[in-house]
Amino acid sequence: MKTHQLAIGLMLILVFLLPGMGYVQGAPRSQRSAAVDSQLARSRTEVLRKTKETRAGAEKLLALHEADLKRITEEYERRRELYYQGLISRNDVIHAEHAVAQAMLRLQADKRFLAETDTALTEFTLRDELLRLPGLALGGYSETGSLLRFNGAAKFALAEVAKIERFFTSTFGRGLPISALGQTATHDRMRFDHHNAVDVALHPESAEGQSVLNFLRQAGIPFIAFRGAVPGAATGAHIHIGKPSPRL
Predict the structure, then answer these.
(1) How many CB atoms lie within 10 A of CB 18?
(2) Structurally, how many domains does the chain consist of?
């Protein structure tokens, strides 16, 4: 009997305490959620700040490398003239040619990095707008002032890039201007999963961009075309081929 009464007593205690316990525990959960949101916002702001700083540094480096190329090219021209006059050896000219080639490679690497960073910054900046948009059914297409989306039914893989390149080269007589093929160091820093996507540095409203978008839609390949992070500015405008890049 005493055991039964003790059990009833414990049950009553639990009945009275549980609501209070739930209330007490609920507040910290809410606070923790707010703290996590705040931390994510701070982290996002910090990533954006550091990426912009890195880009600014890369732009300064590009200017220095452009000046180097000009100086090195002038030195090459000077040595070539001296060689024709019989004043220096052929090796002196070859060394100068090699220096010009190396300078051009550095410049190309700078430009690739800037293009890659611009496209990643655009996607990062417009991510919230993209997440607010309603989902698209298979084959669905939509446009906003900043984005054009197509949810193609085809399963896109990086191997598919070759046929897009062939189409572009045969149509326009030049290579497809790819700014990011798969995952890059920039996507790692910004915590984007870009392993199965490719970015093409074409404005979606240009003749070339429109041609590529039409080709992708006919092939059923999904894409998101970004008009640019800043309305009216072409910086960062590109075509993201593949599904959206989720956060890692």
Answers:
(1) 10
(2) 2
On whether both 171 and 101 belong to a single domain, the answer is no
Global pTM reads 0.71
- Of 42 and 157, the structure prediction assigns the larger pLDDT to 157
* Geometric angle at alpha carbon 93, from 88 and 96, rounded to 5°: 130
The answer on 140 and 116 residing in a single domain is no
Structure tokens at 99: 């220096």
- Output the CA–CA distances (angstroms, integers) from residue 112 to 56, 117, 119, 186, 211, in the order listed: 14, 9, 11, 11, 23
| Number of neighbouring beta carbons within 10 Å of residue 147 | 17
Q: What is the pLDDT of residue 189?
A: 81
- Range(s) of the domain holding residue 101: 41-125
| Same domain (yes/no): 62, 154 | no
Over the stretch 47-60, which tens digit does the pLDDT of each residue have? 778 888 988 999 99
